[in-house]
Amino acid sequence: MVARAGVPAASSEATRHVMQANRSKNTGPELKVRAALREAGLTGYRLHWKKAPGHPDICFPGRRVAIFVHGCFWHRCPHCGPSRPKTHPEFWEAKFARNRARDARDNALLVSAGWTVIVVWECRLKKGRLDATMEEVVACVRRAGEERLPARVVEVGSPPAWRLRERRQRLRHRRP
Known about the structure:
Number of helices: 6
Number of strands: 5
Largest sheet: 5 strands, mixed
Strand content: 5-15%
Shape: globular
Order of helices and strands: HHEEEHHEHEH
């Protein structure tokens, strides 16, 4: 097992294989969103379009809508508070910080270019939440086709801001 420069070696061969199996494109949550968009009759989107800043997972260039489907672990979901790896915590904290910074940069570039950015979290695509989440995504994309939406970031399926702040505070007090 050889580690790349700056990347610690996996704690076991099994861990190494699990981490290598993580994909960045065509993930399960992304496929769910695409299937729901097709079912709603919203086709003509581009996948990982290189002409849009940040290469959104799903992009409607004509409507100026970019959809990012974020995995809860990798992008540090504010809703479900994913666990943190116990081994090599410094590496993981730096990795997560880079991911969050890249997400913020990509969102800012898209918004400044006049795009509406929709962020869908993996946990919002689970049973019981999938239909409501996708209804919100479909409605937002359809509205963008009818009228020019303001350039902004929309987190689909998010609770009100005050509830999110409460939940984050509880999580901070729970962790050592």
